[in-house]
Amino acid sequence: MRSPLAPGIWLLRTFSRDSWYRSLVLLLTFLIYTSYHMSRKPISVVKGQLHRNCTDLEKFNTDLNSTSWCNWAPFDQDNYKELLGGVDDAFLSAYAVGMFISGILGERLPLRYYLSVGMLLSGILTALFGLGYYWNIHQLEYYVLVQIFNGLAQTTGWPVVVTCIGNWFGKERRGFIMGIWNSHTSVGNILGSLIASTWVDSAWGLSFIVPGIIIAVMGLITFFFLVEYPEDVDCSPPQHRGPVEDLNTSVESVVGSCLERESEPKGGGRSTGSEEKPGAISFLGALRIPGVVEFSLCLLFAKLVSYTFLFWLPLYIVNVAHLGPKEAGHLSTLFDGGGILGGILAGIISDYTNGRATTCCIMLAMAAPLLFLYSSFGQSGIGISVVMLMICGALVIGPYSLITTAVSADLGTHKSLKGNAKALSTVTAIIDGTGSIGAALGPLLAGFLSPMDWNNVFYMLISADVLACLLLSRLVYKEIQAWCHCMNRSRGSSLTLTHLR
Question: Is the separation of the CB atoms in 425 and 165 below 8 Å?
Answer without folding.
Answer: no
